[in-house]
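--- STAGE predict ---
source: upstream dedup step, 1 unique chain passed
mode: sequence only
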Amino acid sequence: MRPLFQSFRLFIQQIFRDSMLSAVCIGTLVTALFIRFGVPAIENILCNHFQEEVILAKYYLLFDLMLALITPYMFCFASAMMILTEYDENLTRYLAVTPVGKNGYILSRLVFPALISIVVSVALMHWFSLTAWSFAMTLLTCILTCLMSIAVALLTFAFSHNRVEGLAMAKLSGLLMVGLFVPFFLLTNIQYLFSPLPSFWIAKLCMEQNLIFLWPATLSSLIWITVLYQKFSRKIR
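--- STAGE serialize ---
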């Protein structure tokens, strides 16, 4: 266990030495502050201007879902960028054969940051959400967004060879987040065309408060992770 935690400590140190990645992690708090205080302020301005009772308020749940997703997404993005840096420097194969091992490397570089992101995301949801959430639903949603973000990180690394390609792929993989918006704006059964996206089922779960949507939300994320992990694993072999 000691080599594992030493590897994770080295990973954290590398994150804070990288100004872009440290800014990405800190950016989650900035986003949370904007959602909690900026969105209601904009809502008041728009309602006064257009003489309407609600404009953005009916989408507060959507903003909360974005808040639940932003922390694991950013943390896993930082992980993917750091793994790409080590891959570009030919360090991944070396680290995989140290006492840390291949599984330990994956734990320290991806799983541990993802688990930390759940704790941070739950805290941010408690302090900065715009709608009322039970603790159970908050925790469940943050776990699901974490699983989806792991898939995003695997996708970013699996199809990139360096950080420049990784940045482009991270933007492209952000399309996995589109599913959050679909149930709010596409009210017909056409919305189920987006069912391969875990974010779609997460939004359905939170909108309808029906645990039946928990299963496709979990299963879709696990399918993405399983498929992408195979390519990830071959790449760092």
